[in-house]
Request: fold
Amino acid sequence: MNRRDFIKISSLFLAGSAAMSTQIGRTFSGTGNALAGEHAEKVVHSFCEHCFWRCGIAAHVRDGRIYKITGSEHHPLSNGKLCPRGTGGIGQIYDPDRLAHPLIRERKGGQSTYRKATWDEAITLTAEKLYQIKEKYGPQAIAMLHHGYGYTFFKEMFKSFGVNKFAKPSFDFCCGPRHQGYILTYGHSAGTPEGIDIQNSKYVIFFGTHYGENMHNTAVQEISEGIRRGLKIVVFDPRFSTLAGKAEKWLPIKAGTDIAMMQAMMNVLITENLYDKQFVEENTVGFDELWAEVREMTPEKAAEITDIPAEDIRDVARRFASFAPSAAVHPGRRTQWYADGTQRVRCIAILNALVGNYKMPGGVVKYEKYKLPKAPHHHYPEFEKEIWSQYPLFTDIKPSNTMASHEVMQQTMNDEIKAWFVYGVNVPETVTLGRKATLEAIDKVDFLVAVDTLPMEVTGYADVVLPECTYLERYDDLDGGRPYRTPFVALRQPAVEPMFDSKPGNEIARMLADKLDLHGVFEDSVEEYLDKRLKAAGSSLEEVKKTGVLLGEPTDLYRKPGEKLTFKTPSGKIELASSKMREAGFSAVPKYIKHPEAPEGYYRILTGRKPMLTFGRTANNRFLNELPTARENDIWVNPEVAKQHGLTHGEYVHLKNQAGVVSEFPIRVKVTERIRKDAVYMVHGYGHYFKKLNWAYKRGASHNQLISQTEIDKAIGAVGFQNNFVTFIKEA
Ligand code: SF4
Reply:
């Protein structure tokens, strides 16, 4: 047994099915009452926490209970609509498996157990341990891993304590390359929402982006509306995705060859003189270096690499140019697949630059932020280093993080990090280095605190579990740092009181600050703090509470005739050849690198999302997971592969990866022509092994468990995991 063994939290410490069933029953009966209009209704405007898009929500409350959640009509990212996960927030607040009390790990008779603790006990123990670790090893021995939006008060507390190691797994495999690839090329991020003017686009190319399955509300609304008005879509994807079903062309590209494909498209644009010469001459640097790199990548050569016929490559490049500047290549999401994610995103940015679509209707646009004065903060001690990452071009976008999350794992294995404070991220099932490597790191940690709403796998390894209330029961900091078409500041506010013995993160952080003698970090109550910030922005908490949002003037999106463009790159121009990449010792222009092939009888694992499931937060949501298509994941297998392995549609198999790791739970086979013969596909986020997640436990197979091989992008520290391959073990 490991030193840090996994504890199966007793149901005594959870919200309890019986009590919660009553709540849910009352919730549903409330819906009936709402229709009858018998009771006064309160509508609270806030923002969603089921993914980072953070749409505006309207929580409908009666008799102290939320009975439905709808899209806020005031918030620019919702436009009165939500994706399924947004409406399903009610399944999170009334989840019978919720953590109800603080828990402290104890060892009795050689066995670890949890005991129910008071908040004072749990906070005192946490403060004592953090203090001891800081005294003994220095503040750099403490790291915070986080996801979601409630972490900001903890971050303020930790920075005041001298801790400056922050990491979020989503940087590693999702947003890191898309931000950095764009920043290196244009001097600004690709944005969330992405700076693509889909509302006015005529032609958009996607590389493996699964809109419609990966639901980002505003983008899906814009794409749907675009399709209605005749937007042409091209999808390069080894799998026929939902979006591919809406495309004029689906091109089943061989996984791992996007850079070759995009180089060939550049080759066509340049050879056939289809690029915007004037724009490139006036606004870019590095054209000759780029041409030297892509001149050999003819469509014929790319066809051999990508499995896409040369005439299709020429056709897409020509049509892209013909619709430009109202055409774009979409930057995508979850952009780190191999070790070359940053350069792959740079290819996307370069293709856009070549057709001169920058700040043009239907092209790449740069949204503005609401001019919200920065949050006042406490005096921070001098930090030894601002950025802890060893990777030369690591910079988080805000920057809210100082290292990649796999670096937290590595520094833990090297005994440099001794304590983890984990906020809202189910680390063992979150792709960084895979489940096995993550558990080895967890086993080395001296002290682990988990703040969460549900008993996720990570809480089973914690020394202290601090139950946070859900996003529907608390204030968080303002959402004010994101650029958009209409700049905005959004307010998260409680729709109902916190249930059980859970508390808002801002209050937990305040309690910890007090115990750590960090006086003055949180002088104001959270309402006073928010009011001060909103007053500095020309409004007030009272005012913004009414709609949940404060709107600015719409962004001036488009270039004026003759406007001189400047970019925040070292050259002040769009860098087709990146000077920063060159200085850091990498190729200044993207190069195609061949990735490993699957061993005989194995298939590359591709992964994605379902519309009802995002992160751990939605995994146990009974309202979402009761939908038949959401209950478990399937393994998509091409019919020829199925025949070769004797698999039938609907049967259950175990998956075995190239390192011999076998999936703990079986997965259902989906035999379909919609996947190439050299790959299989499964949705991430299933196969939970924590029994206290009553709805999620043992449903489908875990993708994270099958990751044994990772590649690190040496420029920015992102982690690719697509060089993992599986074969099938039939059930006995
Ligand atoms: Fe919530 Fe869906 Fe919007 Fe994400 S896209 S914030 S899950 S409503």
In short: The radius of gyration is 25 Å. Residues 21-38 have pLDDT under 50 and may be disordered. The pocket of iron/sulfur cluster is lined by residues 48, 50-51, 53-55, 82-83, 85-86, 215-217 (CB under 6 Å).
